[in-house]
Amino acid sequence: MNEFNPNYIYIILVSIVVLGVAFRMGYYNNLVYSSLLNENKNLEIKGIKGKKIYKTSDKIFNRLKKMYLSFEKVATKHNIKIWAISGTVLGAYRHNGFIPWDDDMDFATDISNKIKLKSILFKKDLENEGYSLSYNQLALPAFRVTDSNSVNITPPFIDIFFTLEKDNKISVCMRNNSILDDNSLECDLYNPKMVWDKEWIYPLKKVNFDDIEIWVPNNMEKFITREFNKDALDSAVVNYGHASVGWMIPKIDIDKSHFENKLSTLQYWEEINPLNMGKFKKSFVPGLLNPLPLH
Fold first, then answer.
1. 32 contact partners, CB below 8 Å, separation of at least 6
2. Which pLDDT does position 40 carry in this prediction?
3. pLDDT by residue (tens digit) across 164-210?
4. In degrees to the nearest 10, what's the CA dihedral of 21, 277, 152, 64?
5. Which helix (H) or strand (E) holds 245?
């Protein structure tokens, strides 16, 4: 009899994650807001086609703001500039804060700052604030700021993406393995919707975001129109966050190699297997069912 290959588990569970995310996005992306924004840029929360819209709790938003302020303090100390992208810049423009159903924050920084972020001094300063940096090859090619005591990437968290400047264009790196390489300050795979004219981004500016301030691109309208579309400036598509799959992706130290990353993920999946001796129950979240340990 052939020996069982543990890589089969890896492939099966990766497939579950991909199919789960695809189902979640496809299902909820049909729920489109048609109402216009009011003068305060607050989108009306209402059900569409009989569906209930889930709003993220203020507790999550408050934890995210505290996490951002701590990270920005450490980043500023180490001369690292970060600025909002994706849902965070969209929320800043359209809602003066979080998108009501979002559960994370997204920022970018020049890829040259990767060495600083991985330095012992930076990680120590961040740990002193109660947070740590992680990376998992299953997730997007970004470093992730999480609570120091978390074991997976269930929200809240902050994603730090890396950008590369070339020919007066700023592009977000979308290649996974090179992000783990200390010596790699280049990337050769981009999302065409995340390539912007440099003049749209710099000089950065600060704007109000709920009751704090964050750095954003200088021309938010053009920036958002490129990444999303023009309609996104005053209307919205409901796309729920990461809680439905975050429990499946372990938090892994950014200094681990590609192989160690994969091995740690497999070990984590074995430990949290919801069929393992009935130690886990299932709790509803929008999207997949989320196993939680019994207490």
1. 48, 235, 236, 237, 238
2. 46
3. 898 999 999 876 556 666 667 777 777 788 999 999 999 999 999 99
4. 90
5. helix 243-246
Give the length of the chain: 295
Could you give the CA distance from residue 207 to residue 199 in angstroms, rounded to a whole number? 18
**Residue 145, amino acid:** V
Helices 7-28 and 258-271, axial angle in degrees (round to 10): 80
pLDDT of residue 39: 44
Tokens in use for 244? Answer: 């439905």
User: What pLDDT score was predicted for residue 241?
Assistant: 59
Whole-structure pTM value: 0.77
Q: What are the residue boundaries of the structural domains of the chain, listed by start? A: 7-293
Name the CA dihedral angle for 196, 109, 228, 203, rounded to a multiple of 10 degrees: -50
pLDDT tens, residue by residue, 75-102: 999 999 999 999 999 999 999 999 888 8
Q: Establish whether the linkage from the previous residue to 156 is cis, with ω within 30° of 0.
A: yes
Q: Which amino acid appears at position 211 of this protein?
A: D
Look at phi and psi of residue 96 and say left if phi exceeds 0, alpha if psi is from -120 to 50, else beta.
Answer: left
The count of other CB atoms within 10 Å of the CB of residue 293 is 9
Task: Give the burial class of 43: count Cβ atoms within 10 A of its Cβ; 0-12 exposed, 13-18 middle, 19 or more buried.
Answer: middle
Mean pLDDT of 31-51: 46
d(CA 159, CA 117): 13
For the chain, the helix, strand and coil percentages under 3-state DSSP, each to the nearest 5: 35, 25, 40
